[in-house]
Request: fold
Amino acid sequence: MKTVLVEKGCVVNSIYHYPTHMTFFTTPELLEALEQLMIVIGGKLREPVPLPLSIPTKNNRITRENLRLLDAMIFRIISEHRAAGRDQNNLLSMLLKAVDEDGQPFTDQQIRDEAMIMFIGGHETTAHLLTWAFYLLDQNPDALAKLEAEADAVLGGRMASLEDFAALPYT
Reply:
């Protein structure tokens, strides 16, 4: 579970600049919602004729409930970001400043849609990257030992931050 929390925290932090320890996106319910959505979406991609979400199947009910949880989180972040009233130099700030072809600002729903694409897309690609990285480290004990030694020396057991990356050249 720790790897999953770190992975999703990094994705959320990269999109919204939220610290990875914030509990509203690392709750077991939210992590489970994202995992269930990924499973159901993956299954829908393989269906010859996917059923619309309005049909009350078990998977559709799971999908709707999990989307409600993710929507609540993303709409909350949008609201907090808007209330802060300043450019925070991240994707969400860019979306809040964006305008459509008619010069109208994006609605919260449009911002949510764009953010959800980045959130889910960022999760999936990060998951694949970490899977291969851990597999390759497992196959190369010398590389793993070097990576662990560097991380221990620089981080001393704490989570890495953006400022630490310059001091982690091997990692």
About this structure: The helical segments are 2-16, 28-46, 58-84, 91-97, 108-139, 141-155. The mean pLDDT is 79.
